[in-house]
Specification:
With 399 residues, this protein is an alpha/beta fold. It is built from 19 helices and eleven strands. Helix 1 links the parallel strand 1 and strand 2.
Length: 399
């Protein structure tokens, strides 16, 4: 069967990371995503971190499965093309600063006039309202403004601690895609299109929901000691005797005796300093050293086997090369092989959600700049002579 979004058409004006990853996720679900890029260099993400062989993981990962059309949005002929496309699509997505699309004649009200059922999705740095709404932002700016850089281990006299992988961008893309899909459901139920606004700042508040909920109640911010500040004996990560690392996740008190038996420290079950959760918290530093010292006496797999036998939540700390060797990722489709026109045995991050009847799938690699321009224009009714004129006038570029 087709994917859950099969038949949904998306016109994608997003660039860099936050917006493109959101539309890539929707493509994985079967949506036809047409990426609009400027002639010439296209999305600036095409060149970020490009390798000598031409491969750009930043662009490939954020734009897999899409088609690409080039249009110079500063020219009225390009706007005419957009209006024709909008009449045929379900969703428009953009991540420019607030006001940019309006200035181009491509704001919500203008495009809604061409398609009453249109879902118009915008994601910005700080949200659509307030004095920050029209200001530019990137990932770590939202991390910093949301309190995350301090919550990760910064604070008075300490350097702020950022999270890798573009935490605001990636979590923001998930929130953005979530908003688009919710709007599609609402349209099916109520028949109305609408505008959807997401932001990096809003996504970072969602990511920090638990720590913020505690602060909002107590008005007290707990200070972490660096990026690893919450590492605890029963809930953290520890080195084994072979230099490899493992994680332990004992949150439920009933798992504590099993962990003690697994690491051959039955004495910690009854020791007054570790017999219950309150004692373990009071003597956390002592207990951490006891567990760490014990785990250094045997290799990682020895301890993992014993912990798993006891039903203790645990796992290995893997490098990326080890991730590729772990069948769990392949069995669940979290890593997949995709056919690529330029690179053999090309691997991609897969779809993180499974559907029993309408499965999603990576639809293909990222498109070449303007690869589908002529195909799209022909489908809109332009003939080859008109397409050549648009190219000659630099409205678009040949695919």
């Amino acid at each position: 069967m087709p994917g859950p979004l099969d038949g949904i058409r998306i016109l994608d004006f997003t660039r860099y990371q936050n917006g493109p990853h959101a539309s890539a996720m929707l493509s994985d679900m079967g949506a036809d995503v047409l990426k609009v890029e400027l002639p010439g260099n296209g999305d600036p993400g095409r060149s970020l971190g490009r390798l000598p062989d031409g491969f750009c993981s930043y662009f490939e990962g954020n734009n897999r499965g899409k088609r690409s059309i080039t249009l110079d949005l500063r020219k009225p002929q390009a706007i005419e093309v957009i209006y024709k496309l909008v009449s045929q699509v379900d969703v428009v997505m953009e991540n420019f600063r607030s006001g940019v699309m309006d200035a181009l004649g491509l704001g919500y009200e203008e495009l809604r006039a061409h398609n009453e059922r249109l879902i118009y999705g915008s994601t910005t740095g700080f949200g659509p309202i307030g004095e920050w709404s029209r200001r530019a932002s990137f990932d770590h700016i939202a991390q910093g403004m949301s309190g995350a850089l301090i919550a990760q281990g910064g604070g008075p006299g300490k350097e702020p601690q950022a999270v890798q992988w573009g935490l605001a961008d990636q979590s923001g893309s998930i929130v953005f895609a979530y908003g688009i899909m919710a709007a599609l459901v609402a349209r099916e139920r109520f028949g109305a299109g609408q505008r959807v606004d997401a932001s990096l700042l809003g996504s970072m508040m969602t990511v920090q929901n638990l720590t913020l909920a505690n602060f909002l109640h107590t008005k007290h911010q707990e200070v972490r000691e660096g990026a690893g500040g919450y590492n605890q004996a029963a809930f953290g990560w520890h080195e084994a005797g072979d230099g490899k690392w493992l994680t332990v996740g004992v949150l439920d008190p009933k798992d504590w005796p099993g962990l003690c038996r697994a690491i051959e420290r039955d004495d910690l079950i009854t020791d007054e300093r570790s017999a219950d959760a309150f004692a373990r918290r009071e003597h956390a530093d002592w207990l951490l050293q006891e567990v760490k010292g014990t785990l250094l006496t045997q290799p990682r797999q020895y301890w993992l086997d014993r912990m798993l036998a006891e039903g203790v939540p645990c796992g290995p700390v893997l490098e990326y090369a080890e991730v590729l060797d772990e069948p769990q990722f392949w069995d669940n489709g979290y890593i997949v092989e995709v056919e690529h026109p330029h690179f053999e045995e090309y691997l991609s991050v897969g779809v993180p959600v499974r559907f029993s009847e309408t499965p999603g799938a990576v639809q293909g690699p990222a498109p070449e700049l303007g690869q589908h321009t002529e195909e799209v224009l022909l489908a809109l009714g332009y003939d080859w002579k008109e397409i050549e004129r648009l190219h000659d006038e630099r409205v678009t570029a040949a695919g």
